[in-house]
Design brief:
Elements: H1 2-15, E1 22-25, E2 28-31, E3 38-43, E4 47-48, H2 53-58, E5 66-67, E6 74-78, E7 82-85, E8 92-97, E9 102-107, E10 110-115, E11 117-123, E12 126-133, E13 145-146, E14 148-153, E15 163-169, E16 172-174, H3 181-205
Antiparallel strand pairs: 1-2, 3-6, 4-5, 6-14, 7-13, 7-16, 8-12, 8-15, 9-10, 9-14, 11-12
Helix pairs in contact: 1-3
């Protein structure tokens, strides 16, 4: 009975993950590592709230932003320590500031257009807008994941451009499924206890 219990503990340790802190932005809740965290490519010249395009698009500050009026401007962004998963409901949220605007989003060679709407929140002294979308829009199967996307900037009807601030995954998972250090510790402890119990049982039987 003890061995079965310890084996169960070892199995639980194998699947356990450390709890992530949550971040709330514009009425949406994300794991704190569920945001794009790398700029892998771009085209066009950009205006920012201060700092590089990479820094303002990959920080956790909803009040920082970047935009471009350059024809054909785009940014390629990646999730490096996580992936965006096609789960239940909407999967990714794009945030921008000021007047609601739109982007073209390209994933896996498929491009769709999304327009933001007010969240009722403010950031950096501006109205915070958001557009949420489902990865199924891009032919991504349920439970499958992506690690990168392209945002293209275009002039909306009012002659403005989306001042992009954050891109977060509502459904996310670890990149490559590599266990965190705390998970490894629990795993080793679980198997150590299991081995000790089996050794003890063998000694008692003998």
């Amino acid at each position: 009975m003890k061995i079965k219990l310890l084996l169960a503990l070892g199995a639980a340790a194998l699947t356990a993950t450390a709890a992530s802190a949550s971040v709330s932005v514009g009425g949406y809740t994300f794991d704190n590592n569920a945001f794009v965290d790398a700029l892998t490519g771009s085209s066009g010249s950009y205006s920012t709230s201060g700092g590089s395009v990479a820094s303002v698009l990959t920080d956790l500050a909803a009040g920082s932003y970047a935009f471009s009026f350059s024809p054909g401007a785009y940014v390629d962004l990646a999730f490096t320590d996580n992936v965006a998963v096609n789960g239940a409901g909407k999967d990714i949220v794009l945030f921008e500031l000021g007047v609601p605007d739109g982007w073209n989003v390209t994933i896996g060679g498929i491009t769709n257009s999304y327009t933001s709407a007010s969240t009722g929140f403010t950031a950096g002294g501006f109205g915070l807008n958001a557009a949420a979308f489902d990865l199924s829009d891009f032919g991504i199967a349920a439970g499958s994941s992506i690690s990168s996307l392209r945002l293209s900037f275009f002039t909306a009807g009012g002659g403005t451009i989306a001042s992009t601030s954050l891109i977060g995954a509502l459904n996310s998972g670890p990149a490559g499924g590599v266990p965190e250090a705390s998970t490894w510790a629990m795993l080793i402890a679980g198997f150590g206890l299991t081995g000790a119990a089996m050794r003890r049982r063998t000694a008692v039987t003998a």
